[in-house]
Design a protein that fits this description.
The complex is a heterodimer of chains A (about 575) and B (about 210). Chain A has about 575 residues and is of the alpha+beta class. Chain A contains 16 helices and 16 strands. Among the domains of chain A are: about 35 residues; about 240 residues, no CATH class; about 40 residues, no CATH class. Classes of the chains: A alpha+beta (about 575), B mainly alpha (about 210).
């Protein structure tokens, strides 16, 4: 009896011991083990936004737990990481003691080199191209290289061979407290500082030890810390990438839906040896065939819709003979499935006119104004901006080749300069109709040499445009950095840049309806290369056909009228032959 | 004066079912088809396309049965063209009909169609239908042939052109066809025959 009673007590005690051991790693759950479902839920939420960094005193445990769910290594127990790191390179050094090849991999990627050599041998990449926003990174490295996956690129003397300069944390920070600010040449914040200047807002120093101990696979906020803020502000550059994608609803992106599929960027942009697939410099505009099968040999771009969905993804009544699937020979998936971009409430920049930069306010001082939605409208440093949300893309035939203007390419100032030009042939098998964000603007060019100018904008020195508001000095300095001649004469030319839209994929119910293209007010009006029922048609056939039908109708009416007259004449005893 | 002297059973049950269901489908397909073509908006493009395709399948099934019926019953012989009395029929429709000349042709169970009818229906069967159906099937099966070598040679514009041209021909045929139903001994006599199957044979009193 007594033994049985003792056993009755023993069992719950044993259970309690087992559970406490099972959850012992988790400092929060030593006393009362959290039930399993809570742990699963805790893994779900997207990390907090870097805009409001958590105070370092309370490490964000959710991120750490999420990390532990998927990895066999608890970095907080690694000896190499039990150190009060003073700088980013010190952390990298520690990472490389185990991940011996990681830096070598990163150094081969565009995230490191900012250079890409296209099929024709032309040197592209952020190091060489001009864009339609801040125009060029060269001579502005200290600011721009906040988004370089490295430490210390502040001029052309940066050491691309030093492995310690590779920044592991910008991609692998799971705490959302690691921030790299303009002006620091890619270094994180080592000392608490006010940012933006004179804003009264402060960015805390990064707790490198904690961040290093909690490293994880990249999540949306990691990639987003640069790719959401391209061109220096949330949503500015892409339109289909902005901070609203940190925690999007299903409406905004059916795959990244935080409560649903919750894809990270790398779910599609699969990486191999740190090389991230799906580059804008190597766009896969056309993909045919079935979805990728696990285990099958396949070198197709994984960052494509078709790699998961195949090229016949729509299920319809079989009697309709796959009418929707038949569209995939002309349309990119994105054309119907991203009916509008910039849908997250952040908006995106439609144009940037540099020609009004250096204009001062009424008191002769630089001013900055905002539009009704609080987005930048004018800045004496930068010029005039136009922003908008819920934008309908512009559509172009695209074969994946983007013809970029690199520094020094000749331009025709009498025309709008295409900073980049999507290549493609209307109706061709190697091209599809793609949606684009087209960003328009005005940029400085050399009136004598007819090329776009490299302007030294950022910085605190006397030649920086944003410091002294002198175009001549800024251009002279910028061109000297780029090692290119400048005639001394500049003016502004209209420019335009096209960005293929591939994110913010709407749920299928929000995809384009047929009639949005197949009617007179078609989105694809004038696109060419495809016959669109409801829009196109041979107008001569229509004229001839309707004319013939009307003549036939008139013919039978006249014939019938004559018969009626004859019947009535006959009733009155008159013959019809007489008339 | 004329008087009904005889009644003959001209159109059998299946034939009448075929005629009216085909008539309904053709009207429906013209209506949906011209909406797909962009001539007007009624159901909306998507619905119009789907209805048009469903109707096409229904018509194909109807035709499958009808072709079977035509050959098993020997009714196909009514579509063998004949030039005999064609001139007389043309003269009748352009002149005689106004002066109350007798119809040179009398329908019998062995000869349901007058020579002009035979020619017209033969044109429908051998010219217009292949045009519309051929192009329609190409349209419907676009996803099948477009990726093959044929896709490089046959633009959808051509398919659509032929299909639309065929649609106009059917539209014109229908206008004439409906008008000619009024040329019986009363305005609705022919339609009545097509509904009941019974043709009232009249005889002209001298």
């Amino acid at each position: 009896m007594q033994w049985l009673y003792a056993r009755g007590l023993l069992l719950p005690l044993m259970l309690a011991w087992v559970t406490s051991v099972a959850f012992a790693d988790d400092p929060k759950t030593t006393a009362v083990p959290a039930p399993a479902p809570t742990a699963v839920v805790a893994a779900q939420p997207a990390p907090p936004t870097p805009a409001t960094p958590a105070p370092p005193a309370t490490p964000p445990l959710t991120a750490a737990m999420a990390n532990k769910d998927h990895t066999t290594a608890d970095h907080s127990r690694f000896e190499a990481l039990q150190k009060d790191f003073k700088s980013g390179p010190e952390v990298t050094e520690a990472c490389l003691t185990c991940h011996t090849e990681a830096a070598k991999h990163v150094m081969k990627t565009k995230h490191w080199t900012w250079e890409y050599i296209d099929k024709s041998g032309k040197k592209l990449g952020k190091k060489n191209v001009i864009n339609n926003f801040c125009t060029s990174a060269i001579s502005n490295e200290k600011d721009c290289m906040a988004c370089h996956a490295g430490y210390g690129w502040q001029d052309k003397h940066f050491d691309f061979k030093n492995e310690k300069n590779v920044d592991c944390l910008v991609c692998h920070d799971s705490t959302a407290t690691y921030r790299k600010l303009p002006g620091d040449a890619g270094h994180p914040v080592y000392e608490r500082k006010e940012f933006p200047k004179d804003s009264g807002k402060f960015v805390e120093a990064a707790d490198l030890k904690m961040i290093a101990q909690l490293v994880a696979k990249p999540n949306r906020a990691n990639c987003g810390s640069c790719h959401f803020y391209g061109a220096g502000g949330d949503g500015t550059k892409h339109g289909d990438l902005d901070s609203s994608l940190k925690k999007p609803g299903k409406y905004l992106d059916v795959h990244m839906d935080a409560q649903g599929l919750n894809f990270s960027c790398t779910t599609c942009h699969q990486t191999d040896e740190h090389k991230v697939s799906g580059s804008r410099y190597e766009v896969t505009a056309v993909m045919t065939g079935n979805a990728h099968t696990r285990g099958a040999k396949d070198d197709k771009n994984p960052a494509s819709c078709q790699s998961c969905h195949g090229d016949k993804p729509h299920q319809q009544n079989p009697l309709l003979m796959g009418q929707l699937n038949a569209h995939t020979d002309k349309l990119a998936c994105q054309t119907c499935h991203i009916p509008e971009y910039a849908r997250g409430g952040v908006g995106t920049e439609k144009s940037w006119d540099w020609s009004t930069a250096t204009k001062m306010g009424p008191e002769g001082k630089p001013i900055a104004t905002k539009d009704s939605a609080g987005r930048r409208a004018f800045d004496s440093k930068k010029g005039t901006f136009v922003w908008d949300s819920y934008l309908i893309p512009e559509y172009k035939w695209f074969n994946g080749d983007m013809n970029y203007s690199a520094r020094g390419d000749k331009i025709d100032p009498s025309k709008t300069v295409n900073i980049n030009q999507p290549e493609g042939t209307a109706g061709a098998a190697d091209s599809r109709i793609w949606p684009f964000k087209v960003h328009r603007g005005k940029q400085a060019y050399d009136k004598e040499f007819s090329y776009l100018l490299n302007v030294h904008t950022a910085g605190e020195d006397e030649t920086a445009l944003w410091h002294n508001f002198d175009w001549q000095k800024a251009i002279t300095a910028g061109m000297a950095s780029a090692e290119m001649p400048y005639s001394g004469k500049f003016d502004f030319v209209s420019t335009e840049m096209s960005w293929p839209i591939a994110h913010m994929v709407a749920p299928k119910g929000d995809a384009l309806a047929c009639a949005q293209c197949h009617q007179a007010e078609s989105r694809l009006k004038g696109i060419g290369g495809v016959y669109m029922p409801g829009v196109d048609g041979n107008k001569y056939l229509d004229m001839f056909g309707w004319a013939a039908a009307i003549l036939a109708l008139l013919g039978v009416i006249i014939h019938g009228a004559l018969r009626t007259i004859c019947v009535s004449r006959k009733k009155r005893g008159l013959a019809c032959q007489r008339w | 004066m004329s008087a009904v002297v005889n009644r003959i059973y001209l159109y059998k049950g299946y034939e009448r079912f075929w005629h009216w269901s085909q008539a309904g489908l053709i009207f429906f397909m013209l209506f949906t088809g011209f909406e797909v073509h962009g001539t007007y908006e009624f159901w909306g493009f998507k619905t119009a396309v789907e209805y048009h395709i469903y109707a096409a399948w229904a018509l194909l099934v109807l035709w499958a049965f009808t072709i079977f019926w035509q050959f098993t019953t020997g009714e196909w012989r009514h579509y063998i063209p004949s030039l005999k009395k064609v001139d007389a029929m043309i003269k009748y429709y352009t002149y005689g009909i106004f002066v109350h000349a007798p119809n040179p042709y009398q329908k019998t169970t062995d000869n349901k169609h007058n020579p002009l009818q035979r020619l017209a229906y033969l044109a429908v069967l051998s010219l217009m239908s292949p045009l519309v159906w051929g192009s329609g099937l190409f349209y419907l099966f676009y996803g099948v042939w477009q990726p093959t070598w044929l896709g490089g040679y046959l633009p959808l514009d051509v398919v659509a052109f032929v299909h639309t041209a065929g649609a106009f021909m059917f539209l014109i045929f229908i206008i004439a066809h409906i008008y000619l139903t009024t040329t019986g001994h009363t305005v609705f006599a022919h339609i009545k025959t097509m509904i009941t199957g019974w043709e009232e044979i009249e005889e002209e009193h001298k």
